[in-house]
Amino acid sequence: MTTTATLPSPTKLVDEFMSKLSRKDPHEVEFHQAVHEVVESLAPYLMAHPQYMKEKILERMTEPERVIQFRVPWMDDRGNIHVNRGFRVEMNSAIGPYKGGLRFHPSVNLSILKFLAFEQTFKNSLTDLPMGAGKGGSDFDPKGKTDAEVMRFCQSFMTELSRHIGPYTDVPAGDIGVGGREIGFLFGQYKRLRNEFTGTLTGKGVEWGGSLIRPEATGYGNVYFAREMLKTQGKDFNGLTVSISGSGNVAQFSAEKVIELGGKVITFSDSSGYIYDPAGIDSEKLEYIMDLKNNRRGRIKEYAEKYGVKYVPNARPWAEKCDVALPSATENEIDENDARMLIENGCFCVAEGANMPSTTEAIHLYLKHKILYAPGKASNAGGVAVSGLEMTQNSMRLKWTREEVDQKLLQIMQNIHHTCVKYGKQKDGFVNYEVGANIGGFLKVANSMMAQGLV
Ligand SMILES: NC(=O)C1=CN([C@@H]2O[C@H](COP(=O)(O)OP(=O)(O)OC[C@H]3O[C@@H](n4cnc5c(N)ncnc54)[C@H](O)[C@@H]3O)[C@@H](O)[C@H]2O)C=CC1
Ligand SMILES: O=C(O)CCC(=O)C(=O)O
């Protein structure tokens, strides 16, 4: 049993905990990275509050309550059979039903989904809505597939997943590679198998149970959060230059909100490269990107050809000078070198739209230079927050207006900012949003787990 007298130093606590965790599943590097980031920043708090260590809360939080893995066979348009792997990681249900997105991408494996589900635990807690944490998906690659192939894949995936989810059990949504089209196919199959019309999935179409503002929520929420950070230095987006990575859901709606607030968006990217438009991507050009990515499913390079701007293949946009960076593509897309370039070029604010886009070394650099840095679990929580509001509307059989949902989203992001400041403000006034988000997210889950006995 750990007592105050036998407590190790924070560094020893982190090392001992991480070496035990890594020994269990040595290949799960993304999961270990996400846990290390949390444990490193929580360690001093845990030393001062030994009850959480005594109750082995971290050990319990890093072991998923349940992992489901299954075969997903499907047929392409030519009649060839393919077999993919499906997963759902049901991470933590201390404060509500498992909640979190589904990712369809060839890189998907258990390590990635465990890192995402672990992050989701803190993120969902920060929203202050009653949502536990889960994440799932498949190594299926929707790129280059026809609508009919994507539908057959989704139907096969849901045929198994439907046994494990439900409005009071586990409520999936979208993530990379899973947007409105996929949620439609998944929902249709769930309804058919279970013979029920419930809010089991979120991100649904507005005509059939979806919430207004859910597509916009992650991007808008990230910009609302960044605006709160800027306010602490007496600044706002008006006149700032903003670099965005990705060109999917989060990137598009982050850009829409930045443009509305008077900022200049200069970059977008996809897995093949990035475009740099020094004149700024205005609403009309953004509309072109939305059509290119959401309807024509083309490559971002086509933007450079249409508007005659620079395209850099196989690269990320962080060498371009900006004031604010909103990484909105994928994990580990800003390494130490990228972070150094950003800071040396005058970037003073990084707000993560993606999950874990910054490596550990990049985060250490942000903190060393005391720039405004928001970890994704705080700043991209707007997506799951509006998913929570979609669940509420489904339960009440009501539909809120666009303005009502947007107002609630703004309030939630401001509350999360407040929580981060509360737990992350240091003696010199600097706000360490990473520490603030981790302590703020941890407490509600940890206290709920302790109240519910040894589960
Ligand atoms: N959709 C949502 O509500 C939420 C999404 N997120 C996170 O935001 C990030 C983006 O997700 P979405 O926009 O929803 O997905 P999406 O599928 O709509 O877009 C993903 C974008 O990332 C790019 N991308 C994917 N892999 C890449 C790679 N290896 N290198 C460079 N670019 C790459 C794609 O080309 C695409 O532009 C992910 O980290 C996701 O987990 C976080 C919170 C909520
Ligand atoms: O809306 C949701 O339930 C999930 C959003 C998500 O996957 C995320 O926050 O990373």
Characterise this structure:
The structure is a single chain. The chain has 455 residues and is an alpha/beta fold. Among the domains are: 66-197, Rossmann fold, CATH 3.40.50.10860; 216-374, NAD(P)-binding Rossmann-like Domain (Rossmann fold, 3-Layer(aba) Sandwich), CATH 3.40.50. Helices cover 49% and strands 15% of the residues. It has 17 helices and twelve strands. It has helices at residues 10-24, 29-48, 51-54, 57-61, 110-127, 147-161, 180-194, 214-231, 249-260, 283-295, 301-307, 336-344, 360-368, 376-379, 382-396, 402-424, 433-451; strands spanning 66-75, 81-92, 98-104, 133-138, 170-174, 241-244, 264-270, 273-276, 310-313, 324-326, 349-351, 372-374. The strands form two sheets. It has a seven-stranded mixed beta sheet with strand order 9-8-7-6-10-11-12, sandwiched between helices. Strands 1-2-4-3-5 form a five-stranded mixed beta sheet, with helices on both faces. Strand 3 (98-104), helix 5 (110-127) and strand 4 (133-138) form a beta-alpha-beta unit. Helix 8 crosses helix 9 (249-260) and helix 15 packs across helix 16. The chain is globular. The chain starts with 9 loop residues before the first helix and ends with a helix. Mean pLDDT is 97; it is low at 1-5. Bound molecules: 1,4-dihydronicotinamide adenine dinucleotide and 2-oxoglutaric acid (AKG). 2-oxoglutaric acid (AKG) binds at residues 99-101, 120, 123, 173, 175, 202, 355, 383-384, 387. 1,4-dihydronicotinamide adenine dinucleotide binds next to helix 9 and strand 7.
